[in-house]
């Protein structure tokens, strides 16, 4: 990039302020949705929950949807939920354990041959241990980091070069509110989600810095969603988000090229507040609201 000068500093700061004002305006008046019909969308964890519903929604929008999952039953279920022939013909399921990088690269090549270049990559697959730090088995800690974070590196290595060459594409990271706030019972999960948020933020900066601005990024940080992943958790003040609502908001954020989506909206306020509060005040606020105890009743997926 160019040399640092006083003029370049003030020019940069001027545009930074302009984009800030635009962002505040767009918070209230969102920009128009982009047309994604005919695009190829790859979704990991497409056999259940959010990934399943995202697959159906993107197929409705006229996209070819490539679904990856470790569960073939899950992928078949997603296919069976596609309501008409047009949608089914756009559905391309592949069994892929995303923690196996050789398999990721192999299946990515197959997708390229069978379906074409991926335009939108949605790193959505995720797992949770749901235990206090000292009760987490080593294997589960490793697996959580592998599925929730490290696998993103492999899918990005497979699909990002094509997007950069075409200066067009979109990388979506389904992270979590646990990627912004820590709480008891989520040490490994929060570590993996903070890392996923960090990866996406750094990648965004790299793309901007290298002027690959045609490739967009969106990081999604939801509170608990009623998919069953966090079955048993008790949420006294903020109710669980309905999965249909979460999926509609994620699709909308992608279509409007939103860089960050926090759900529900109050989380934007809490996130800024966290930066201003001492750690003890932040903890006591979370504790008074019952959030710190929410994982005490966690059962998770028992199926
Ligand atoms: N449900 C929530 O409350 C919640 C809240 C915030 C963020 N999230 C995040 O949203 C994403 C989706 O969550 P969900 O609730 O739909 O979960 P889910 O359990 O319903 O679906 C996760 C999918 O990922 C697949 N998967 C797991 N390991 C895999 C692997 N190694 N390779 C390929 N696929 C694998 C599973 O088979 C499953 O189909 C996750 O990243 C999760 O962390 C969920």
Oligomer: single chain
How many beta-strand segments?
7
Heterogens: nicotinamide-adenine-dinucleotide
Any idea what the CATH superfamily is called? NAD(P)-binding Rossmann-like Domain
Description:
Helix content is 50%, strand content 13%. It is globular, with a radius of gyration of 20 Å. α6 (138-166) links the parallel β4 and β5. The model has no long low-confidence stretch (mean pLDDT 96). The relative contact order is 0.11. With 303 residues, the protein is α/β, with parallel strands linked by helices. α2 runs parallel beside α3 (72-81). It has one domain: NAD(P)-binding Rossmann-like Domain (Rossmann fold). Belongs to the short-chain dehydrogenases/reductases (SDR) family. Keywords: Membrane, NAD, Oxidoreductase, Transmembrane, Transmembrane helix. One of its GO terms (molecular function) is oxidoreductase activity, acting on the CH-OH group of donors, NAD or NADP as acceptor.
């Amino acid at each position: 990039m160019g040399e640092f000068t006083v003029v370049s500093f003030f020019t940069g700061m001027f545009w930074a302020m302009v984009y800030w004002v635009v962002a505040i305006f767009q918070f209230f008046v969102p920009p128009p949705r982009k047309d994604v019909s005919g695009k190829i969308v790859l979704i990991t964890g497409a056999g259940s929950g959010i990934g399943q519903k995202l697959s159906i929604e993107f197929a409705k929008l006229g996209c070819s949807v490539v679904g990856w999952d470790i569960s073939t039953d899950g992928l078949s279920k997603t296919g069976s939920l596609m309501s008409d022939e047009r949608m089914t013909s756009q559905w391309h399921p592949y069994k892929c354990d995303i923690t196996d990088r050789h398999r990721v690269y192999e299946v990515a090549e197959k997708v390229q041959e069978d379906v074409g270049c991926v335009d939108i990559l949605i790193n959505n697959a995720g797992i949770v241990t749901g235990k206090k730090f000292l009760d987490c088995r080593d294997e589960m800690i490793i697996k959580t980091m592998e599925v929730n974070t490290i696998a993103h590196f492999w899918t990005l290595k497979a699909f990002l070069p094509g997007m950069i060459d075409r200066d067009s594409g979109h990388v979506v990271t389904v992270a979590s509110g646990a990627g912004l706030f820590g709480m008891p019972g989520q040490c490994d999960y929060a570590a993996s989600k903070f890392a996923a948020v960090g990866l996406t933020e750094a990648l965004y900066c790299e793309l901007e810095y290298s002027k690959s601005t045609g490739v967009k990024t969106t990081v999604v940080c939801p509170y608990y969603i009623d998919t069953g992943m966090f079955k048993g958790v008790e949420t006294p003040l903020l109710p669980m988000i309905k999965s249909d609502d979460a999926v509609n908001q994620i699709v909308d954020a992608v279509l409007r090229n939103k860089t960050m989506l926090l759900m529900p909206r109050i989380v934007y306020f809490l996130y800024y507040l966290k930066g201003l509060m001492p750690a003890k005040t932040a903890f006591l606020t979370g504790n008074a609201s019952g959030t710190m105890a929410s994982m005490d009743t966690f059962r998770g997926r028992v199926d």
